[in-house]
Write a structure and sequence with these properties.
This protein has 21 helices and 2 strands. With 486 residues, it is mainly alpha-helical. The protein has a two-stranded antiparallel sheet. A hairpin with a 2-residue loop joins β1 and β2.
Length: 486
């Protein structure tokens, strides 16, 4: 039944191009709705309705092939923050939620079709079981006696739903090597555009809407504006997520250089990597600076017997040491060096003091204080809670405080098992392309798990999409390591 409806819609919209009664009805509904929204809510909401309406045929087409929607979702998630700055109050997040529902619906259709699905092996994977354990534990937080309000738990449901939907979409999208390569290319293309846009902010200044957003909040000014200039954020959410995104994308570009491809493509990867590296430095995000050595370090260990890889990594190490110890004294370079001397960093000293002061609470509350009880979220959704307003400055500290040391143990176990699972299957694989992708995704996954120690927004989109996708792609690669694609 679902397949027939999907085929009928595809025929009416894409084959007949709405040149039918169905198209006429849609046009009338659209025209009346657009006029009503503009009259009642204003021009900006009318534009949003127009864009949402134009996306409906695309979403319907995506039901036929979820991979299209997944790629569009990756790109759209990067533009959300800029649209929010240009059009304050515009409900751009609604479109993201539409994608989440689309992903779940597509997974249901995929599972119901039953053809060429390897007996739902995705649902039987050990990584899927890890996801289930983490999700169930967060659901059980509704019974946490230390929580003062259910509002935080309800808000967390949205995050859980997005996590599940992205994981399911990645599981059925990234099943073949050809599309995994497309995903990597789109990701790196977006990252390169973000890098160029960020460097434009640095060297050619901000647009008016960006200046208005920046100077609308003194906290942003204090964080983003330095005596040597601004820290760049491109079109992403903040400087931290931008710096981390540039860091992991640089690692991916470097690893893709080892792919057997044309000289032109390798030159493109080099240009990508250089732009991302410079943009990462100008983001001023210290946590991001450790990503390249961590990612490339893991990659080099995986290919320790490959002289070509060891030589390439050796060149990167020499360049890094030259920058660190060389006679350079610009502000970005000084900030870069400080990332590798955390004991001398005042902000890190403050964070360490905060963590030390809150450790007794973590040890005495194995289930935590409840979801959305720390930081500004705690002040908004759990006012009056002991943890409300506490600056965690770390995703791990947030997890430990809100879900307890049990929750933190579950999360860290997830990360460890994914790394072990991926490394095991990397060494079992005889397929060079599969091994390359294993090294790329693990080389990105590992640094993200490390920077979560010092960053609370380390998995903000688009990083979060890539991070969650790794859950799925590592298992999928294990199924095709010897040529079988489920």
């Amino acid at each position: 039944m679902i397949a027939k409806i999907r085929y009928w819609l595809y025929e009416k919209i894409f084959v007949e191009k709405l040149n039918n009664i169905f198209g006429l009805i849609l046009f009338i509904i659209f025209s009346v709705s657009f006029a009503f929204i503009v009259a009642k809510l204003g021009f900006y909401f009318g534009i949003f309705f127009l864009l949402a309406s134009l996306s409906v045929p695309l979403l319907i087409f995506s039901l036929k092939d979820i991979r299209i929607a997944f790629i569009i979702f990756l790109g759209y998630s990067c533009t959300v923050f800029t649209m929010m700055r240009i059009f304050p109050g515009l409900p751009v997040g609604v479109t993201l939620e539409m994608f989440y529902y689309l992903f779940v619906l597509s997974f249901i259709i995929w599972a119901a079709s039953g053809d060429d699905r390897a007996e739902y092996s995705i649902l039987k994977s050990p990584i899927f079981k890890l996801v289930v354990v983490w999700v169930v534990y967060q659901f059980l937080q509704v019974f946490n006696p230390n929580s003062v309000s259910i509002n935080g738990w309800l808000m967390n449901l949205r995050g859980l739903f997005s996590f599940i939907s992205i994981y399911l979409a990645a599981s059925i999208s990234l099943r073949k090597l050809s599309f995994i390569k497309v995903f990597i290319h789109v990701w790196l293309g977006i990252a390169f555009i973000a890098a160029i846009y960020g460097l434009k902010q640095k060297y050619f200044g901000l647009f008016d809407f960006e200046q208005q957003w920046l100077y609308s909040d003194q906290r942003l000014v204090d964080l983003y504006v330095m005596f040597t200039g601004i820290r760049i954020w491109s079109f992403l959410g903040d400087v931290s997520s931008f710096g981390i995104f540039m860091g992991i994308s640089f690692v991916a570009s470097f690893i893709m250089l080892q792919d057997k491809t044309s000289v032109l493509i390798k030159i493109i990867y080099i240009i990508y990597g250089l732009a991302m590296l410079v943009a990462m430095v100008h983001s001023g995000t210290r946590s991001a600076y450790v990503i390249p050595p961590l990612g490339i370090g893991i990659y080099s260990l995986m290919y320790i017997n490959n002289l070509k890889v060891v030589f390439s990594v050796g060149i990167i190490v020499i360049i890094g040491l030259f920058i660190y110890f060389g006679p350079f004294y610009s502000a970005p370079i000084s900030r870069f060096r400080s990332a590798f001397s955390p004991s001398e960093d005042l902000s890190m000293q403050t964070r360490n003091k905060n963590r030390a002061s809150i450790q007794p609470y973590i040890l005495s509350h194995p289930f935590g204080g409840g979801l959305y009880t720390t930081g500004t979220n705690g002040m908004d959704y759990s006012p009056g809670h002991q943890l409300a307003g506490f600056p965690t400055d770390s995703r791990y500290v947030t997890v430990a405080l809100e879900t307890g040391w049990i929750g933190l143990a579950i999360l860290l176990t997830n990360y460890i098992i994914i790394m072990v699972f991926g490394l095991k299957n990397f060494f079992l694989s005889q397929n060079p392309q599969v091994k390359l992708y294993f090294s790329l995704f693990l080389g990105v996954f590992f640094p993200i798990t490390i920077v979560q120690f010092t960053q609370e927004n380390a998995v903000q989109n688009p990083i979060g999409i890539i991070f969650i996708s790794i859950y799925a792609v590592v298992y999928n690669l294990s199924k095709i390591k010897n040529g079988y694609e489920n």
